[in-house]
């Protein structure tokens, strides 16, 4: 689950109104019903519903979430959307809370997630315009621009590169002005005495303080005006105190040491730290930017008359014929119609080997065509394809806030006020108890400077960005931060069998007609019942029928029996094809084929039965199917055993087939003949042990279990329903990605905990040392800069993870 800030009530005095889209209204009575439902929400002063525009305008100060809930209780759908914003000026965890509060106060906002590391905000809203969100952030002291989904990342990257260059120039300028102030201090350590005149120190320190350090005043003033505090406010107050003390001493003509070098050094070190931190944050987002760059800019489309035109890749529509030359990126998902080649899909699926392509093969937008010319029919536009979905999933995970971040939010809410109070007490203590007001000012400055909430705000999002990014490059798509956080403590992994541990492409290996039934007739009737099905066993029967030249009879009133089989009317007879359980329920005796069926099941074969339900149910025959284990299944199970994780198989197949498949995997438990709802119940029972449970599946029948598990992992080769119910999607059907996904979760969560530990440790140790006079302001500035850089750099160590390549290969 995503942790979202709760929107505050809209101010009645503001005169703002909430506009919300409503779907499902058809007449004037619908309008009256919606208006009545919204008026019942506390805080609503007036409401006007427009049937033509399908929108409602709500006056007053209601909770937007309550308005949405009221509309949906009335039987209509409130149209909510997501707006992504690029937010400039955030520096610490306190800024994150301020941005969240500013956005949550905009009418129509339902939830806000702010990512300090990525400098983005994701807003879930009902009717809130992007312009209103940007205006709210400007009032809070931040610049923001909407992020256009699907737009090329080049301009954004250019802007970031220019900002980085400007930041580097500021650091160089600050260092050039500060170095003459600091060198005499270093010389004094070795007995030298080359102190600059006071007026020279003033000339050097002033541009650092008020030109290069103006950003701290601007952002600090915005925070103070909003009634909060942040890192910029602490730096501005601390350096101003040191600069002001030195200026006062200079104007008074007092001798002794001036502290211009302290204020200038602090600002220079903070600027250096922010520049290094920015570099590290950009490296953390490399993976998602690499995915974005896979989008080709142009595509070559062949028209019905044979002419070819070069068009923007964004203009490709479903059904277009795409000409893909050797070495070019495939512009959109599609199916090969002509030509043979290989495609490099490594950055999309993590598969290192080129994938052969021939007529009928699927191609993925963003992959690189090999050495052959291909003609492919587009099956999706660029904005709807696999690459776009991958980018959206990873961006969503990186924008989400992990549950552990709640601790940071609670701390950051009181952090700056507490630090200000400690600084005041430090000054008063040194002045009143020790009698040294000057030392009190300097030590208070050190407290303000070292107490930086930057590291607190960066620890979690930076680790999540790095973890989800490298996981995506390995073919593991983590949909939300909560799944990433929970997966590290998984103690039980439940695997579906067909399509997950096995190839999912069973073939018919045995046809067993009952006495008095011809094998060809049995196959013809079974193919008729299965003619409209996409089930793997159905495809095996249809393939066998086609290969044998058997034409299926027409079927009508075909009805699926979930988890059991299918029934239909063929040649005027009601037939049922399915499992032994179905035959028992229908009263069809399978004893005539008992010995042959038992022999097949002992070999690990899946067996289906065909029965005639006309009059007394009568068995017509049985079919045996074989499905090979996937090459990586044994390695995946072995990796989990080494990690102390219990492994379980959940399957609807018969016990013989299930145990035969599990025999080569050494699983801890096998649960066979389980219906789809039974899988969810089995997951619930496994969770009773107190250990987190992960479910791995690929089909529609696995969706309830995927949703019921603490973490759902869906094979990307499976159905969209399964992937929608799972928190993690594996882009390849390789079971070895399962332990790899759990491993990257463990490593990422470890980096989050390490980052938070060091962030807290810097402040817990540094503030008392500064208050007691053991740290000078410039030393405090260096420690503060080091805290943020070290936390981000530590998270970047995740990039050394080798992924599933670290797992041993299966041995024959």
What does this structure look like?
The chain is of the alpha+beta class. The protein is built from 27 helices and 30 strands. A seven-stranded mixed beta sheet has the order 18-30-29-28-19-26-27, sandwiched between helices. Strands 10-9-11-17-12-15 form a six-stranded antiparallel beta sheet, with no helix packed on it. A six-stranded antiparallel beta sheet has the order 20-25-24-23-22-21, with helices on both faces. A hairpin with a 4-residue loop joins strand 2 (44-50) and strand 3. Helix 8 packs antiparallel against helix 14 (437-450). The longest helix is centred in the N-terminal third of the chain and has 36 residues, at 154-189. The radius of gyration is 33 Å and the shape is elongated.
Topology of this protein?
Layout: E1 17-23, H1 28-39, E2 44-50, E3 55-60, H2 64-73, E4 77-79, E5 81-88, H3 93-104, E6 109-115, E7 120-125, H4 130-139, E8 143-146, H5 154-189, H6 198-212, H7 214-225, H8 231-252, H9 260-284, H10 286-292, E9 298-302, E10 308-312, E11 321-324, E12 334-338, E13 341-344, H11 346-349, E14 355-357, E15 362-363, E16 368-369, E17 374-378, H12 386-399, H13 405-434, H14 437-450, H15 454-473, E18 476-478, H16 481-487, E19 490-496, E20 507-513, H17 519-529, H18 536-547, E21 555-561, E22 565-570, E23 573-578, H19 580-586, H20 594-602, E24 606-612, E25 618-626, H21 633-642, E26 646-650, H22 655-663, E27 669-671, H23 676-687, E28 692-697, H24 703-708, E29 711-715, H25 720-725, E30 728-730, H26 737-771, H27 777-796
Parallel strand pairs: 19-26, 19-28, 26-27, 28-29, 29-30
Antiparallel strand pairs: 1-3, 1-4, 2-3, 5-7, 5-8, 6-7, 9-10, 9-11, 11-17, 12-15, 12-17, 13-14, 13-16, 18-30, 20-25, 21-22, 22-23, 23-24, 24-25
């Amino acid at each position: 689950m995503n942790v979202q800030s709760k929107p505050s009530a809209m101010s009645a005095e503001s005169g703002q109104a909430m506009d919300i889209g409503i779907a499902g209204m058809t007449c004037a009575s619908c309008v009256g019903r919606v208006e009545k439902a919204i008026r019942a929400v506390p805080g609503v002063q007036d409401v006007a519903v427009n049937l033509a525009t399908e929108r409602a305008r709500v006056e007053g100060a209601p909770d937007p979430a309550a308005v949405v809930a009221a509309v949906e209780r009335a039987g209509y759908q409130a149209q909510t959307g997501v707006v992504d914003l690029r937010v400039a000026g955030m520096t610490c965890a306190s800024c994150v809370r301020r941005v969240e509060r500013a956005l949550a106060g905009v009418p129509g906002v339902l939830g806000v997630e702010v990512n300090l590391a990525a400098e983005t905000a994701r807003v879930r809203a009902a009717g809130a315009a992007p312009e209103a969100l940007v205006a709210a952030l400007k009032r809070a002291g931040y610049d923001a621009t909407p992020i256009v989904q699907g737009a090329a990342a080049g301009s954004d990257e250019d802007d970031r590169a220019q900002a980085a260059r400007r930041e580097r120039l500021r650091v160089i300028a600050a260092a050039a002005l500060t170095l003459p102030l600091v060198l005499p201090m270093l010389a004094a350590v070795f007995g030298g005495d080359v102190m600059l005149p006071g007026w020279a120190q003033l000339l050097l320190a002033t541009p650092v303080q008020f030109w290069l350090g103006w950003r701290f005043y601007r952002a600090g003033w915005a925070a103070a005006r909003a009634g909060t505090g942040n890192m910029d406010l602490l730096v501005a107050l601390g350096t101003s105190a040191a600069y002001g003390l030195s200026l006062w001493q200079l104007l008074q003509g007092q001798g002794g040491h001036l502290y211009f070098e302290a204020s200038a050094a602090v600002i220079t070190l903070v600027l250096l730290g922010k520049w290094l931190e920015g570099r590290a944050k950009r490296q953390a987002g490399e993976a998602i930017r690499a995915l974005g760059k896979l989008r080709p800019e142009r595509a070559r489309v062949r028209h019905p008359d044979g002419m070819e035109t070069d068009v923007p890749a964004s203009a490709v529509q479903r059904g277009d014929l795409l000409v893909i030359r050797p070495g070019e990126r495939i512009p959109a998902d599609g199916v090969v119609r002509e030509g043979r080649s290989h495609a490099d899909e490594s950055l999309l699926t993590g598969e290192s080997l080129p994938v052969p392509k021939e007529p009928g093969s699927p191609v993925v937008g963003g992959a690189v065509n090999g050495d052959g010319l291909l003609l492919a029919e587009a099956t999706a536009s660029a904005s709807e394809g696999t690459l776009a979905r991958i980018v959206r999933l990873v961006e969503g995970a990186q924008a989400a806030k992990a549950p552990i971040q709640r601790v940071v939010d609670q701390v950051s809410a009181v952090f700056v006020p507490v630090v200000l109070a400690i600084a005041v007490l430090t000054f008063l203590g040194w002045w009143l108890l020790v009698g040294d007001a000057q030392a009190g000012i300097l030590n208070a400055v050190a407290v303000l400077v070292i107490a930086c909430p930057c590291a607190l705000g960066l620890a979690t999002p930076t680790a999540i960005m790095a973890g989800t990014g490298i996981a995506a490059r390995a073919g593991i798509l983590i949909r939300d931060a909560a799944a990433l956080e929970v997966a590290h403590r998984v103690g039980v992994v439940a695997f579906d069998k067909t399509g997950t541990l096995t190839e999912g492409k069973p073939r018919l290996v045995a046809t067993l007609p009952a006495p008095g039934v011809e094998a060809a007739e049995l196959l013809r009737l079974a193919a008729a019942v299965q003619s409209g099905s996409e089930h793997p066993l159905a495809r095996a029967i249809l393939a066998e029928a086609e290969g044998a030249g058997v034409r299926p009879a027409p079927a009508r009133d075909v009805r699926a029996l979930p988890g059991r089989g299918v029934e239909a009317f063929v040649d005027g007879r009601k037939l049922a094809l399915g499992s032994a359980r179905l035959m028992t329920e229908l009263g069809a005796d399978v004893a005539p084929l008992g010995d042959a069926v038992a022999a097949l099941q002992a070999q690990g074969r899946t067996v289906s039965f065909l029965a005639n339900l006309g009059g007394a149910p009568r068995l017509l025959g049985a079919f045996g199917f074989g499905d090979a284990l996937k090459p990586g299944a044994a390695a995946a199970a072995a990796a989990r055993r080494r990690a102390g994780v219990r492994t379980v198989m959940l399957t609807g197949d018969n016990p013989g087939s299930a145990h035969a498949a599990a025999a080569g995997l050494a699983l801890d438990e096998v649960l066979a003949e389980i219906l789809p709802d039974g899988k969810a119940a089995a997951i619930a029972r496994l969770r009773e042990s107190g250990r987190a449970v992960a479910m791995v599946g690929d089909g529609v029948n696995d969706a309830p279990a995927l949703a019921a598990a603490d973490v759902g992992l869906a094979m990307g080769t499976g159905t969209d329903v399964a992937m929608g119910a799972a928190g993690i999607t594996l882009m390849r059907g390789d079971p070895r990605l399962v332990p790899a996904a759990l491993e990257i979760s463990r490593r990422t969560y470890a980096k989050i905990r390490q980052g938070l530990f060091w962030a807290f440790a810097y402040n817990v140790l540094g503030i008392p040392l500064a208050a007691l006079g053991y740290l000078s302001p410039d030393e405090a500035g260096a420690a503060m800069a080091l805290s943020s850089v070290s936390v981000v750099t530590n998270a970047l160590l995740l990039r050394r993870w080798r992924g599933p390549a670290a797992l041993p290969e299966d041995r024959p």
